[in-house]
């Protein structure tokens, strides 16, 4: 064997080993890069699904905190309060009144006595009601306040729902039908009383039930129960008012 061929073979072996090592490192690098890409993609996909639901929960917590603040403040200050929910601007704030507020019953036919038949009887009946009621009480005026633990996020003293979260509907005890636009009001009175209410919030404009939370407000304790999906407000009958003392949350 020629002495010259031995170095040639060694050189070829070194080159072959170098190519193998180079190929092995490249393969490992590719595997690592693919693993990192898969991990980042998984986190991004999971985050895109979780972030809206997280904002939905935070918005529910914001509204529940506002209800609690108004309920406690009404009792502590002996003033009437109301939680204002702007269904168009997706904002909430609390207002307070110095004057007492009277809530008229929805059923005016509950007054005692036989129904008037003639026009003269109706006029006499109306005049008697006017005298019994006395002079009209001016409507209370409400002023916006900043409640403890509910710091405003703009100069108007309002608090916005989380980005992408919207009101779906709001119905309180004095509403005949749920409100889907404009402003809705939830009233609080001294002595620990509020209205029965259903406040529905959702992710964007979605009508899918799993993207909706319903906040049910109990009238005697102000307790807020968060439920999945849209839950309509149920107004109890007269026979069911006695069971309200148990106050099971809605």
Determine the CATH topology. Answer: minor pseudopilin epsh fold
What is the rounded Rg? 33 Å
CATH class label:
Alpha Beta
* Main pleated sheet: 6 strands, antiparallel
C-alpha termini separation: 99 Å
Principal-axis shape equals: elongated
* Count of all domains: 1
The overall strand count is 10
**Name of the CATH homologous superfamily:** minor pseudopilin epsh domain
The percentage helix is 25-40%
Describe the secondary structure blueprint for this structure.
Layout: H1 5-77, E1 80-86, E2 91-97, H2 119-133, E3 142-145, E4 159-160, E5 165-172, E6 183-189, E7 193-194, E8 197-203, E9 212-217, E10 224-228
Antiparallel strand pairs: 1-2, 1-6, 2-3, 2-4, 5-8, 6-7, 8-9, 9-10
Describe the protein.
By secondary structure, this protein is α+β, with helices and mostly antiparallel strands. It has one domain (49-107, 115-246): minor pseudopilin epsh domain (minor pseudopilin epsh fold), CATH 3.55.40. It is built from two helices and ten strands. The protein has helices spanning 5-77, 119-133; strands spanning 80-86, 91-97, 142-145, 159-160, 165-172, 183-189, 193-194, 197-203, 212-217, 224-228. The strands form two sheets. Strands 1, 2, 3, 4, 6 and 7 form a six-stranded antiparallel β-sheet that branches. Strands 5-8-9-10 form a four-stranded antiparallel β-sheet, covered by helices on one side. The radius of gyration is 33 Å and the shape is elongated. The chain starts with a helix and ends in a 22-residue tail after the last strand.
